[in-house]
Every structure is written in structure tokens, then in C-alpha cells.
Amino acid sequence: MPPPSMADVRDLADRAPHVFRGQVMTVTPPSATIDHHVSTSSVATFRVDRWYRGEESPIISLSFRSPNPIFGNGHDCIDFQPGGYWLVFAVKKGESFEMIDDCIGALAISPILGPNLGAANWSAQMESDFIAGLADNHQDARLLSVQRLGGLKLPSSREVLRRTIADGDELESKWAVYAALRTGDATVLPDARRLLAAGDYSLPESAIALELKNISDPVAVPELVAILNDSPGEITRSSAVTALSENLKDPKTAPVLAAHLSDESPQVRYMAMYGLRNITREPACTLPSGWTEQDIEPQLQQCREWWQQSGRLQPWH
Questions:
Q1: 79-102 pLDDT, tens per residue?
Q2: 234 — phi, psi (to 5°)?
Q3: Cα separation of 210 and 154, whole Å?
């Protein structure tokens, strides 16, 4: 389960028949009376300030199970409290609603709303509301707005995210790089390379590193090559080589992939060989049908030998 900062807003909205945002007014039973040694059924009452899909009720009840901090098992993650603002992805059960997922079926948001766009589709209205949240006075709420824009994955968000990269504080700028990458914006790869030069062990750097594997714009090739060659983090190198090998398959990158056939990371070595296979269709770099993990290193050695003997002599351009 990804952390809420990396939630896929578009996927959640596509799966949910009812999508709304609003403020929690009451939670029954209140948290002060909950026995945290057992999982507790609770009801949160919301004042809805925007419906994106589904009913238009101004007040709704949402059934959920309160988190158990002692015996948590990866479920029932969300602790609704009065006053909190949430974006909720729900199904209706009788007169009440339930989240479609007990850990990311609701996402914390800024309370600030954008203008009502009337007949606009749900994604455009949601984007407008997230953009409005970038002006929130509280940093945590601004960060949430940046993260939600990333999860919405709309190319139309790129301009405002680039402004946040340039003008936001350090943490906002980092998360805006991640959010922009999620929209497919290859122009922010130099910013990603700068951030990943120090490693990818913590958020948001690890999130940025993971997102590299989804890059598919051909203009990204030079920066992905630079990231692959210069970054110390294994997640970063693995994601960069995956994008080059699976998405882009540019013949000019064959020498780069060949250099990483001896990378210290087994995953990077494997993906480098897979990329060479995709570009060249060379049998020496192709695992046999029904291969197992034990076949990888011998095949890598064959691929290295082919490259040294003949592959490197070919015109890769």
C-alpha cells in the first residue's frame, strides 16, 4: 500500500461511484471513549462542500472502523476527527456510505475551495480545488495540495507545479517535482537529477526515484541517461534503466545499457540486459523460454561477451 502522499487520486476516483470532499462534524463514538485494544465500528458525519460524483446531499454519514494503534494489521488506517477536511471515495450501503479502501479511501486535503466550474468534468473541478489549496496559509495543507495534484496526473497541472518548484519552500518544491513527474512532465528531470544526486532513501526522494520508471517521453532520454550514470541510489538507477529499457528503447542508449551489465545492483544488470534485448534482438542478451533466476547471470555473461566482441563496434545512433 503506498503512503497517502503517493496515492493515485485518478484511479481512486475512477473506481468510486461517489466522490466528495468536506469537513468532519462529528465522530460516533468519540475517540475518547474508544477501547483501542479492539477494532471499533464508528460513524463520521460530514458536511459536504463539493460533490464530484454521485449524490448531492449536504450532510452524509460514513461508516468506518477506527484505527487500532496496538494491534494494527495494515487495515483501518484512517482516524477521522471532528474538524478535519477529507476527499472521500465511497460506495453507498443503505443510508450510509463506506470508503472503497480502508487505508486510502479518504485523503486529507486543504479546506480551501476553488471556484465552482459548473458543467466542467469532475477532474477539472478537482484540479481547480487542489490548485486553490496551494494558497493555504498552512504548509501541511499546501503540501497536501501538491501531492493531490500529482495523484490527479493531469498535464494541465504542469504550469502551476513548475511555479511551485521555483517558488515554493524546499519541501514543497521537492514534492512538486514528484507531482510534475506524475503528470508526465519530462522538463523537471534536471530538478529530479539534482535531488537524487544525494540518494533516494527517504520521501520525497524515494517517490521521485520510483516515478522515473513511468517516463515515456523521448525527450527524456538524455536526462534519464545522466540520472542512470550519476545517481548513487539503487531505486533511482533501477527506475531510470527500466524507463530506458521498457518505455523508450532508443538505439542510442545501447552503449549506456551495456555499461550497466556490470552494475552492482542485480536488478539494474537484469534491466540493462532486457533493454539491450529490446533494442537489438540479440540472442546473447535474451533469456531462454521458461527461464529461472539461476539463468540470469550466465546470460548476462553471454551478453557482455557479445558486446565486447561485436556489439560495441556497431553504429548506435
A1: 899 999 999 999 998 888 999 998
A2: -65, -40
A3: 19
